[in-house]
Amino acid sequence: MKPATITLVALVASCLFTTHGWSQSAPTKQQLEKWHKQFPAADTNRDGTLSPEEATAYRKKLLGRRGKQSNTNRATQGAPRQFKVDAGWDQPRFPDEAVCYKTPAEIKAIYEDVKPANQNTVVSFPEPTGRERRIVATGHSFMAPGFNTLPKICKAAGIQPMLYTHTGGGITGSARYKWEQENGIFQFEGSPVPKLLASISNGDWDAMMFGPYFNDKPEYYSCWIDFCLKFNPDMKFYLSDAWPQLYQLGENPTSESFFTEEVFERLGTERRTMSNEVVDVLRRKYPDKVFVLPTSDAMVLAAQAYLRGDLPGIEGVHRVIGGKQRSLWKDQLGHLGPGFERLEGYVFYATLYGESPEQIKNPIAFGGDASFPSPELDQMFRKIAWQAVTEHPYSGVKDEDGDGTSDAHHQLGNRTEGQTDAK
């Protein structure tokens, strides 16, 4: 088998097995029969039946091969920026069998058949009594740090976290990929996994969050937005704009001396331009509905603060370039360095709830190393997050009076509707 074929089959096997909850519960007889047809080589004893043990062994074998190859590619190239997208996205309508066209009861029944045994078919939260917001989200490893820290920040702020996600690594966490996966269309034809669609159509929600990906298009988000508004017409939508990455430079610099405040300003401007190609279209189509989680601006401000010596305990800009463990970024792909998961969580909190993290007086139970980040560094993260959010024209949050609370909250009696700030 050629290496390219191995990689393709491994990717398909990974998506297939993981999609159907392989890691959470034993596969059904129907799933094993389907896998046997697609991967006959997995039937090692050639008895015509694929056992759970054979499926497990085959999956591990293929993923092991893929891991060796992908680790090499990622170390030198970062995430793939060119990939094939199904031509069906150019059609005016999704295939008729798409889950999004079914009734809430039908969607619920579909997910009931494929969900992991330990997971609810429909997730819902009680009606908010204060500043709570019921949030669904897709995302990848760039969003994961914020998804992990946001609930902890909310608890310290006296807000009950209400977040339900469907995530994946890299492209598998993109809005486009998750829409195909949940609907059972294109690469997932006949195998829908409507984890979020079941809950969105059968419950009440206030907001949805997304992580960006290469070659994004407005339609990858508008399909989600249209579906959400059909069942929850008051929902708001928040797109992260990620942050600067090494690929923008063409080639890696030989030294961290290359990085200046001006360089990061330029990289941040490029990121905003790329993000706005999608966001501007969506904001015109859905007035007062679409906003930005300005993680890119926050990381640019953090990088500039580091260069000025204002991030105590941070040792470098990029571990790939300078080799320092406590750097802003830790690998070629651009994942956040240690401690910066707090900064992303603070940006999420400030945008969604219209309040500066500096206003939170209770200790936040982040866990991990209690000595890092230090209280001084943590306070800088909070300050940077609020600055990034209030200065971004698409965040929906303004603080003209400087009291650490969105100005729109005063107008609306402190209800979490600060998104009306941005027009």
TrEMBL record:
Residues 394-423 are annotated as: Disordered. It comes from the Bacteria. Residues 1-25 form the signal peptide. One of its GO terms (molecular function) is hydrolase activity, acting on ester bonds. InterPro entries: EF-hand-dom_pair, EF_hand_dom, SGNH_hydro_sf. Residues 30-65 form the EF-hand domain. Keywords: Signal. This is Signal peptide protein. It comes from Rhodopirellula europaea 6C.
